[in-house]
Description:
This protein is mainly β.
Amino acid sequence: QVQLVESGGGLVQTGGSLRLSCAASGSIFSINAMAWYRQAPGKQRELVAVITSGGSTNYADSVKGRFTISRDNAKNTVYLQMNSLKPEDTAVYYCKAVVQVVVGLINDYWGQGTQVTVSS
């Protein structure tokens, strides 16, 4: 089994910053892509940012220039640095890891979610 544990959420004022972390542990042969999603009340879960094992990144248009995704492969950890936060960034943020458990067996795993609230 693989577990993802997130941390770093909280309450921040408009224009503030937060850094989310997500550490993967368990039966991991390798981790392919890692990503952050978010889900606001009454809305569908949406992709925020993704990073491949090689370090290539992609972002939702709404966060480009404000959020930065990074990863530490040695620690099986992905980060999301969020700057210039806006009230519309308020959501539960989830990390996802595409994990090769053993050679040839790849599964998706999700974290439990961490609340980010941006006050106006």
